[in-house]
Amino acid sequence: MIKIKKVALFTPLLFVLFSSCKTESKDQKQVVNYAEELHSYAQPNKSVIKHLNLDITVNFEDQVIDGVATYTIDNNKASEIILDSKFLDIVKVEADGKITEYELGEVNEQLGQPLTIHITEDTKTISVYYKTTNKTEALQWLSPQQTADKTHPFLFTQGQAILTRTWIPIQDSPQIRITYDATVRVPKELMAVMSAENPKTKTADGVYSFKMEQPISPYLIALAVGDIEYKAVSERTGVYAEKSMIDKAHYEFSDMEKMVVAAENLYGDYDWDQFDVIVLPPSFPFGGMENPRLTFATPTVIAGDRSLTSLIAHELAHSWSGNLVTNATWNDFWLNEGFTVYFEIRIMEALYGKDRANMIALIGRQDLDDEIESFKNEPNRTKLKLDLKGKNPDDGMNSIAYDKGYLFLRTLEETVGRDKFDAFLKDYFKTHAFSTITTEKFIDYINTNLLEPNKVTFNTEEWIYQPGIPSNQAIISSDKFANAEKVLKQFLSNDTIDASITKDWTTLEWVHFIRNFPDTMTTEDMARIDKAFDLSNATNSHIAMVWYEQAINKDYHGNNVDQNIEDFLIRVGRRWYVNTLFKAFKNNDKIDEALAIYEKSRGNYHSVTASTIDELLGL
Ligand code: BES
Ligand code: ZN
User: Fold this and answer.
1) In this structure, are strands 275-279 and 237-242 parallel, antiparallel, or unpaired?
2) Where are the domains of the chain?
3) Distance CA 404, CA 394 (A)
4) What residue's CA is closest to ligand 1, atom 22?
5) Atom of ligand 1 nearest to the CA of 318
6) Largest CA distance in the chain
7) How far apart are CA 13 and CA 84, in angstroms?
8) Which pLDDT tens digit goes with each residue over 268-315?
9) Spatial separation of the C-alpha atoms in residues 325 and 84, rounded to whole Å
10) What spatial distance separates the first Cα and last Cα of the chain, rounded to whole Å?
């Protein structure tokens, strides 16, 4: 008998701090300590999922995924197991193959509903039959028109931070780790790929089988379905993309193998066997998403000159920081992203040298100053360790975790010396592989393994628990950026200047040059620069984005820039770009222009971008 009743809303502080969960592995008992969790209803200390078998059909006509999620569970003599679920249509639930009772709790706008399933202390598996709905936030269903090739529809998922529960009922906390296998049925013209062992060609019947044998956190389960093909870069790296993009992607990411080698030389073996990238349609809401074995990437990274590939280094670095050693809660998000930016920049340095690495670091350094300025009335938001109680984890997903996290680690590296720091990091990844880490555990670890043995005093707590930037921060500099600033000054002081002086500039120098236009700059100055460099028609997405931002700031309308901005915002759904431009409209009292464009573009955005912009524009 199935009973659906409303249960009282309870705060999801349900993982008891340092409560223990005993899991038996052969003759040895292992104790897992779960940290306090704000964003999941699961109670893993009572019963926790260990393996997922997913069996689903992807129906493009109705835009529905339906099927069954079967979990093998670790049952600590529990009478129930609680999953997270949001906007899912639960059809029926079984325990060890027999129908069982379940309750769906009250809806919380951010967290969804606890799905409480009745089990007995002997229950070993549970199966949830379900369907996604048209509110399912993780999924974006694209029409052929919204793809590169314009002939077939496309679907992709985005799980981080708490969206996996909107397409699979699951214990959706980063502290949970599961292995999975899946059977996915798609229209036979399309191919399905997941964050798992993947096919390299289409099957005849549209049925695909997947296996992820390393335990991963639920936010890393991912699926993409489209008319895509595969092209190998090396034995263990390669790209998936639509036909019209595959060669471009292959060219752009030709250094993937070198990146993996550099990363392994720095911090130990790549533990996931395969490292592929799928280039998604332009509405993908992030630059990249580190889904294990298969990074999801925006096509805006394909510049034609390999100039934006630090993004690939970044997602690759997450194979260690994030996927192997995972932030225990979203309050510890900086442990994922700060380490990853540090690692990304080290990979870039290993491949392309210090100049390029420092330019990337300085772009982030400026982002950090801007972010701190934007939080000047909420200084608590500039702390590395967050307090997201009652908030969506998205609130913490800003430059602080990335760029303050980076600056902290770089300062630490410069204080203890690179050799010691590298040895420490290598050991850190090895010791914590396939487990989760809290900020507090990290502080303990660093004291015991880096600072005390080397007799170094360091203001770790100030960096992590205080707002702003401590005064011992590493100073980053770049001659190339200093030169770009000089060129800008000369240009503005009206000296006639030879535009060929910029002929060897890389994307990063252009970005720096444009982002440093002074407040005093006039629309005539903008026109002069545009005439010399045609920036309004830049094809590099990063250069275009920062130029558009300045055009909005400086009220510049020449050289078709308005139309280009509108086209860009309609085509591209990458949240960072879209948000930057809509913010510029808003900050310059151009809300009407923003709304006029948003009316045309919103339908192309994934829910994470749309909800950010809705909030920004007060909708
Ligand atoms: N894991 C993030 C993306 C993310 C963060 C998704 C939080 C959902 C919630 C990814 O690794 C990332 O940081 N992407 C950046 C890339 C950049 C820093 C090179 C992006 O999308 O811009
Ligand atoms: Zn990242």
Assistant:
1) parallel
2) 1-133+156-186, 320-465, 479-616
3) 17
4) 287
5) 11
6) 83
7) 13
8) 999 999 999 999 999 999 999 999 999 999 999 999 999 999 999 999
9) 23
10) 43
Q: Around Cβ 602, how many Cβ atoms within 10 Å?
A: 17
Q: Which two tokens stand for residue 603?
A: 């339908």
* Angle (nearest 5°) at CA 294 between 157 and 241: 80
The CA distance from 103 to 114, in Å, is: 8
Q: Name the closest-CA residue to atom 17, ligand 1.
A: 311
Yes or no: say if 281 and 146 are a contact pair by the CB < 8 Å rule.
Answer: yes
What residues pack around ion ligand 2 (CB closer than 5 A)? 337, 340
Is residue 145 within 8 A of residue 19, CB to CB? The reply is: no
**Catalytic residue (one of 315, 349, 413, 549):** 315
How far apart are the C-alpha atoms of 619 and 404, rounded to whole Å?
Answer: 31
CATH architecture of 320-465: Orthogonal Bundle (1.10)
What is the C-alpha separation between 508 and 518, in angstroms, rounded? Answer: 18
Cis peptide before 35 (omega within 30 of 0): no
- Closest-approaching ligand to the CA atom of 545: 1
Residue 15 has pLDDT above 80, yes or no: no
> Is 566 within 8 Å of 572 (Cβ atoms)?
no
Indicate if 479-616 has the same CATH topology as 320-465: no
- Fold category of 479-616 in CATH: 1.25.40
Write out the DSSP string of 422-462. HHHHHHHHHHTTTEEE-HHHHHHHHIIIIITTTT----HHH
- What stretches of 213-309 show up as alpha helix (H) in DSSP? 243-252, 256-267
Atom of ligand 1 nearest to the CA of 402: 18
Ligand 1 atom nearest to 333, measured from its CA: 7
Residue 312 · residue 289 · CB < 8 Å: no
Q: How far is the CA of 388 from the centre of ligand 1 (A)?
A: 18
Q: What is the pLDDT of residues 26-37, one digit of tens each?
A: 334 455 789 999
Sign for the CA dihedral angle at 47, 53, 58, 62 comes to negative
Indicate the burial class of 510 (C-beta count within 10 angstroms; 0-12, 13-18, 19 or more): buried
The pTM assigned to this predicted structure is 0.95
The CATH class that applies to domain 1-133+156-186 reads mainly beta
Say how many residues make up the chain. Answer: 619
Rounded to the nearest whole angstrom, what is the distance from the C-alpha of residue 343 to the centroid of ligand 2? Answer: 11
Ligand 1 neighbours, Cβ below 6 Å, are: 160-161, 286-290, 311, 314-315, 318, 337, 397, 402, 576
Beta bridge partners of 22: 31
Atom of ligand 1 nearest to the CA of 341: 18
**Dihedral through CA 266, CA 272, CA 275, CA 277, nearest 10?**
-120
CA of 429 to the centre of ligand 1 (A): 20
Q: How many CB atoms lie within 10 A of CB 371?
A: 18
Q: What is the pLDDT of residue 5?
A: 36
Is 402 an annotated catalytic residue? Answer: yes
Up-side HSE of residue 307: CA atoms within 13 Å toward CB? 18
By CB neighbour count within 10 A (0-12 exposed, 13-18 middle, 19+ buried), where does 292 fall? buried
pLDDT in tens, 348-367: 999 999 999 999 999 999 99
Q: Among 71, 402, 556, 605, which one carries the catalytic annotation?
A: 402
Please give the helix or strand (H or E) that residue 554 lies within, else none.
none
